[in-house]
Amino acid sequence: MLKVLLVDDEVFIAQGLEVLIDWRAEGYEIAAVCQNGREALDYLREHRVDLVIADVMMPVMTGLELLETVKREKISDASFVILSGYGEFAFAQQALRYGCMDYLLKPIERDDLLAILRRSSSASRDAMMEQRYEREYLTRRLIALLYGKGSREDLEHVRSHMRLSPGVRYVEIEIAGEADADGDGSELAVLREQVYQNCRQYLQEDADHCVLEISNNRQSYAVGLIYCDYMAEDRGLAEGQYIQQLHRHLGVSVQREVRFIAGRRVQDLEQVSQSYESAMALRNLVPFRSQKPVYWYEHELQEPPEEERTVLLRRELDRLIEAVERGEHGLIETRVRELFARMQERGLKRRGINVNFNYLLFRLVHLASNLDSESDQEEILQLISASSVEQGFLRGGSSHLTRFACDYADYLTQLRHSEPTGILRDIEREIRENYAENLTLQDLGRKYFINSSYLGQIFRKAYGQSFKNYLTLHRVNEAARLLLHTDRKIGDIAESVGYRDIDYFISKFIEIKGCTPSRYRKSRQ
Questions:
Q1: H-type helices in 204-236, by residue range?
Q2: Which CATH number applies to 162-300: 3.30.450, 3.40.1820, 3.30.70, 3.40.190?
Q3: E strand or H helix that includes residue 458
Q4: What are the φ and ψ backbone dihedral angles of 170, each rounded to 5 degrees?
Q5: For residue 333, is pLDDT > 70?
Q6: Exposed/middle/buried for residue 313 (C-beta within 10 Å: 0-12, 13-18, 19+)
Q7: Average pLDDT of every residue of the chain
């Protein structure tokens, strides 16, 4: 509902306006009624409204003075309508010069008021859409900086539209838990939207520091925060206190456990990609750390204390890694049992177990890097952590680790052989023919009997981008073709190319084509 403020010193005029039309049916609600401009000004300083209808002549402060003060001091972006009699028409003309949307002559006619309200409603919708597109444009440039692909123009645009300060840190806000049973993640997607909106509300004037679409080549239900030192300083808090306070606020507001992953602190926005990359690296290690509300990059990558370094079961781990490298599933199962027996014999607690698993994981990454120097180590870590969380070997014990280790051994085996160009052609054909379906590397890997981790790597090498980005580009290009050669509605086109969420479709279209679908269609007609 759009909010209206009525301002008139004649009570019966305001009362008449309240009953003249069905405000709710027109999409409005009367937020307050004030008897002079000064009272209205005080109200506008504390409350947001969309439309002000004010008499031109009032005691204490006239409607004209109210309008002039609001516009000069930028107190509100509400539209103004001035009420005037025939003898006050000159004042109404002056109000128009101050940016008044329109004026109404007394006595007020119902049809005249309805016409103005509908025009104001349309203008408000257009303004909200324009603000949304501007925000998406800013977000797209900010994401480019996070990925390390931003230009100098991107940097300057973000600097001119956001408050910044020295001391910048990327913080990923994740919803704890797994996708719903049907696997589509709809519940987590709804919760992510709630986290995003509550985070924006908490940040207030810094709301654009909260970024919704930050996932890079992975299924994510996270929200990104560009933290700057001034945020804590403005509230008289230390950085850690501010982050903990925000964490508590979001957890209470969505009634769900959330966790923060804070990348390393950098000096300026220009280095924000370094903070983002460190947060992503830390994210991939979180499943192998003890559970915490906030993970700090600097804390988590500290050298473990001497007593923990002594519990590294190097002999058992090296024998397991050798079995993985040889690709012998039976031997892997034996080595995993030996490792778990030794950990139980030593009485290792979770922290000590994590030390051993971290050693195992980084050695496995090293194996893949030796086989293919172009392997993306961060991507390998991501695939490892995703697999380990899915299989739950930290929770479930040796059987899950055995399954994971065997899968990774198969991945290494495929990495040693030449690229299966025939399979890549099949994958490309799948995209062309079934792009509107829910295509995933995991499903395609099962269909073509190839390890999905390996498939993702060779796809990136062959096409210069991830499978997910390639699929998105194909979908958007197909949508662009339909926009130009059909008169189908945008929502219909979005669904036909695989997007059930039209807002998400529009954001991806803007990201790739640089404008909204409607503007793209109009500019090429």
A1: 229-234
A2: 3.30.70
A3: helix 452-463
A4: -85, 130
A5: yes
A6: buried
A7: 81
Supply the pTM of this predicted model: 0.51
What does the H/E/C string look like for 279-301?
A: HHHHHHHHHHCCCCCEEEHHHHC
Strand partners, 172: 224, 261
CA distance linking residue 110 with residue 104, whole number of Å: 11
3-state secondary structure at position 53: strand
CA dihedral 428, 429, 432, 434 (to 10 degrees): -110
The tokens for 257 are 């456990």
Between CA 80 and CA 65 the distance in angstroms is: 12
User: In which element (H, E) is residue 371 found?
Assistant: helix 350-371
Pick the CATH number of 421-523 from 1.10.10.60, 3.20.20.30, 3.40.630.30, 3.50.50.60: 1.10.10.60
The domain ranges of the chain are 2-129, 162-300, 306-416, 421-523
For residues 44 and 76, give the distance between their C-alpha atoms in angstroms, rounded to a whole number. 7
DSSP 3-state of 54? strand
Q: Are strands 222-228 and 210-211 parallel, antiparallel or unpaired?
A: antiparallel
Higher pLDDT, residue 239 or 366: 239
Please determine whether the domains at 2-129 and 162-300 fall in the same fold group of CATH: no
User: What fold characterizes domain 2-129?
Assistant: Rossmann fold (3.40.50)
First CA to last CA distance, the chain: 35
Of 163, 281, 138, 269, the residue nearest 216 (C-alpha):
281
Kindly calculate the radius of gyration of the chain based on its CA atoms and give it in whole angstroms. Answer: 29
Q: What angle do CA 83, 130, 156 make, to 5 degrees?
A: 125
pLDDT value at residue 88: 60
Residues 308, 479: Cα–Cα separation, whole Å: 55
Instruction: Name the burial class of residue 302, with classes exposed (0-12), middle (13-18) and buried (19+) by CB atoms within 10 angstroms of its CB.
Output: exposed
C-beta of residue 436 within 8 angstroms of C-beta of residue 494: no
Residue 104, CB-side half-sphere exposure with 13 Å CA sphere: 23
Say how many residues make up the chain.
Answer: 525
Give the tens place of pLDDT for each residue, 138-193. 888 898 899 888 888 889 989 999 999 999 999 999 887 554 434 445 677 788 88
Contacts of range 356-363, beta carbons closer than 8 Å, 24 or more positions apart: 356/311, 356/312, 356/313, 356/317, 357/288, 357/394, 358/285, 358/288, 359/312, 359/314, 359/317, 360/317, 360/320, 360/321, 361/285, 361/288, 363/317, 363/321
- Which 3 state secondary structure label does DSSP give 419? coil
Beta-ladder partners of 258: 175
